[in-house]
Amino acid sequence: xxxxxxxxxxxxxxxxxxxxxxxxxxxxxxxxxxxxxxxxxxxxxxxxxxxxxxxxxxxxxxxxxxxxxxxxxxxxxxxxxxxxxxxxxxxxxxxxxxxxxxxxxxxxxxxxxxxxxxxxxxxxxxxxxxxxxxxxxxxxxxxxxxxxxxxxxxxxxx
Length: 158
Description:
The protein has about 160 residues and is α/β, with parallel strands linked by helices. The chain contains six helices and seven strands. It has helices at about 10-25, 45-55, 80-85, 100-115, 130-135, 150-155; strands spanning about 30-35, 55-60, 65-70, 70, 90-95, 120, 140-145. The strands form two sheets. Strands 2-1-5-6-7 form a five-stranded parallel β-sheet, with helices on both faces. The chain has a two-stranded antiparallel ribbon with strand order 3-4. Helix 4 (about 100-115) packs parallel to helix 5. The chain is globular.
């Protein structure tokens, strides 16, 4: 049976709860980066490179590239090898908001089967409330419209 997380609606507690979720997610160290580009000028590449430099394991998910940042790329979350499916903790999404739902659906499918991932993170500018609601109802933590690199850097010791 899945644990249900409370769904946040509004108010001061929502911002506080979001900060707690971000803190929890940043402790997770295995990140599938959906939409990770091999182009160093793209935000996804910069964020993934930063995370790698801070001891995160990056798993690229992009059907158009074979390898990024020294890591094999996979065409979808469902195409990951079994050992990675069991170990992915965060799905960090660099795709348009309208492309998020199928990715979240795959994340939920893996979560239901393996207990992982534990969280879905939609990068800056990416908001899909319906997909976020489905993820929360499935027991995943959700962060939207936020950058893992920025949030990590804010919390890093000087």
